Amino acid sequence: MHPAPHADDGSYYECRNCGHREVADSLGRCPxxxxxxxxxxxxxx
Length: 45
Description:
By secondary structure, this protein is mainly beta. It has strands spanning 11-15, 21-24, 37-39. It has a three-stranded antiparallel sheet, with no helix packed on it. It comes from Natrinema thermotolerans.
C-alpha cells in the first residue's frame, strides 16, 4: 500500500510562544523565537 500523495514525512509542531507551525520529524524548539513546541498531530482528549 502506498501513502497518499499529500501525506507528509513528519509531524506537525506548533510553538507554544509565537504559534509558528512546521512539519518535522522532531522539533524541540521553535526556529523563530526558540520557544518550546508541541506535536499537534497527536490526538488529545
